[in-house]
Structure formats: C-alpha cells, structure tokens
Design goal:
six-stranded mixed beta sheet, single chain, alpha/beta, about 240 residues
Length: about 240
C-alpha cells in the first residue's frame, strides 16, 4: 500500500522523512522532486515568497498544476505582487493567495500601528506563520526553497525533514545550491525574477522590514535590519 492509499493519521511520516533524508542527501534536485511527487501526489504543495520562480520552474516540470502557496501579508512590495501575478500567468501552476485572519487595518486597530517595528516576531507570526500553517493543513508535505548557505540556522537542514510543528514532511530540493547555482539556473532557463533583485534587494520580505543591501554585505542583512532577527518563523 502506498502513502497515497493510506490515511494520513496511520502513517509515521516522521520515519518517512528520516529515511528519505538519508537516501536522498546526495541526490540531484530533480531526483528529490520526483521522489516527493511520486510519494505524495496531490498531497504536496509548494510555497513561494515570489523572490524568484526557480523552484516553481523546477517543480512544475515534474508536476504541472501543483498548488503554489503565496502568503500575501498586506505589506509586500508592488514588485512582489507583480511577480506573483506573472508566475500565475507564465507557469503551469495553481497559485493560491494565502491571507492573514486580519487585514492590516484590522490588525492596527486591535494591536496599534507599525507592529512590524515594535514587535516584528509577533507581526511575522500573525501575518506569515499562522496563515501559512492553516493553509498547509490539507497537505501531507510541502516544497520549500531554503538553501543552506543563506543563514547559519539553515546549515544543518536536510533535503527531506520532519516538520513537527505542522505534522507533515518538508522537502528542500535546492538546499545544497549556492548563489552561483541559483543565478546560473535562472539565466539558463529564463526564470522570472522579482525586479527588486536588480535594485539591491538580494533577499525580499515585507516592504517596511526590508532595505537594500550594499555590495559585500550579507545578502540577508537587509531583512529586519538592526533587530537581530534573521528568520520570519516559517522555517524554524
């Protein structure tokens, strides 16, 4: 009996993740994607911040029509929303716009203005982590585009891992890619890229919490600059 023929509650998905992590550590990106699609079928989705469409391009070659979850925080740059719309028009995927339980105006009325500056962890939780966790409930696994070289906290991550907080499997097929690998793949395949990358934004988050990065600076130093914060909480 395959995973797709078995009720999710009766599966030990944590064991599935551990076995796959060991077996696929040296595998190619496409091998990892093919394993995940064969294992989870329609019960796997992809998440994207619309910084670029590299992972979307890769996964859609193996599974056209896959659900792509985009968390619309209400604070995104116009360029990010434009990239989302372009992805929906160009690639054979089903873009799902995920929104928080409160609009920005409702959040400010309840918690005060500029929560992102006063308590960025809470703002990220309410506008990113909480809505994405709810949107992922219908799936058994999800594709993420994190890479080991991005932050110190990601260096020990595995290509397949158990997402215990959400009770599902997380698949990181480009975990081992360098920035050069990413740049080459984008150039070789004409992949859509958020235009802010060309304006000094190597890592793109919400507009109030993201600044341009000077040459030689850490690519993620423009995220929550001056706060000591390096992750929104989705990938912890």
């Amino acid at each position: 009996m395959t995973l797709l023929e078995t009720d999710r509650q009766s599966l030990d998905l944590e064991d599935v993740a551990a076995s796959a992590a060991a077996a696929l550590e040296g595998a190619s990106t496409l091998e990892i994607i093919r394993w995940a699609v064969a294992t989870f079928g329609d019960r796997i989705c992809l998440t994207s911040s619309m910084s670029d469409a590299a992972l979307i391009h890769l996964v859609s070659k193996v599974k056209p029509g896959i659900d792509v979850l985009f968390v619309d925080t209400g604070y995104h740059f116009a360029e990010t929303i434009g990239t989302r719309d372009a992805v929906e028009a160009v690639y054979p995927v089903n873009v799902i716009n995920v929104t928080p339980s409160r609009t920005v105006a409702e959040q400010e009325a309840a918690l005060g203005p500029r929560l992102y500056g006063r308590n960025p962890d809470l703002c990220c939780h309410l506008r990113k982590v909480e809505p994405l966790t709810k949107a992922l409930e219908g799936y058994m696994a999800w594709f993420s585009g994190i890479r080991r070289e991005e932050t110190a906290s990601r260096r020990d991550r595995k290509v397949v891992e158990w997402d215990g907080r959400r009770g599902m499997v997380k698949v990181n097929p480009i975990l081992h890619w360098s920035q050069e690998d990413m740049d080459n793949y984008i150039a070789d395949n004409g992949v859509l890229v958020n235009p802010l990358h060309y304006d000094g934004y190597p890592s793109i988050g919400c507009e109030p919490c993201t600044r341009p990065v000077a040459p030689g600076e850490d690519p993620r130093s423009g995220r929550w600059a001056g706060t000591g914060k390096t992750e929104c909480g989705i990938h912890l």
